[in-house]
């Protein structure tokens, strides 16, 4: 006899739009999850589910209510950075140096929750964590890792990635710009 399995994905609470987006109609709710076609939620570990819920709660309660004012002004939400730093997800899969050492899946789940509320802010954390921190983690000297990664992991320092030049666009392999410490 076939018994229909029910994914734990369905048990997640609906997003209360009035909490996350105060400018929205209080009666508005995101619908509860109705599909986890591939049952991916069931593949997550307890730790990965905990990371997802921690990031989801912060993003819905702390970040979503204030992001509209930044969208309208085309301004960066610096006040959100410490909230994201407290989540301890910066640097994702990097182990040591104050970085969280998450599984690849845990890192993706955390970033997906950031993107769920604000896609532009997830781009910020992806550039910071993946392009800049991961480059240091993989290619940096031991001294560079000890010097930079701890403050980047806490979002005390913000990393960036210079990728575009007038003659080469975003072809990272053709960049000619160099930096000189002054």
UniProtKB/TrEMBL annotation:
GO biological process terms on file: fatty acid beta-oxidation
GO molecular function: acyl-CoA dehydrogenase activity; flavin adenine dinucleotide binding
Residue ranges of domain Acyl-CoA dehydrogenase/oxidase N-terminal in the record: 46-154
Coiled-coil segments on the chain, per record: none
InterPro entries associated with the record: ACX4-like, AcylCoA_DH/ox_N, AcylCoA_DH/ox_N_sf, AcylCoA_DH/oxidase_NM_dom_sf
GO cellular component, one term: peroxisome
UniProt name for this protein: Acyl-CoA dehydrogenase/oxidase N-terminal domain-containing protein
Organism this protein belongs to: Anisodus tanguticus
């Amino acid at each position: 006899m076939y018994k229909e399995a029910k994914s734990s994905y369905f048990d997640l609470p609906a997003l209360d739009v009035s909490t996350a987006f105060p400018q929205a109609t209080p009666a508005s709710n995101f619908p509860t999850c109705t599909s986890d076609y591939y049952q991916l939620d069931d593949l997550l570990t307890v730790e990965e589910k905990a990371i997802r819920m921690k990031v989801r709660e912060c993003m819905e309660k702390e970040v979503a209510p204030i992001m509209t004012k930044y969208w309208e002004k085309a301004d960066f939400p610096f006040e959100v950075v410490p909230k994201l730093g407290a989540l301890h997800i910066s640097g994702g899969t990097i182990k040591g140096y104050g970085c969280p050492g998450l599984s690849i899946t845990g890192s993706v789940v955390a970033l997906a929750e950031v993107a769920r509320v604000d896609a532009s802010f997830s781009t910020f954390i992806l550039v910071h964590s993946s392009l800049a921190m991961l480059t240091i983690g993989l290619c940096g000297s031991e001294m560079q890792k000890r010097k930079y990664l701890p403050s980047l992991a806490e979002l005390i320092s913000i990393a960036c990635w210079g990728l575009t030049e007038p003659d080469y666009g975003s072809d990272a392999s053709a960049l000619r710009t160099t930096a000189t410490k002054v």
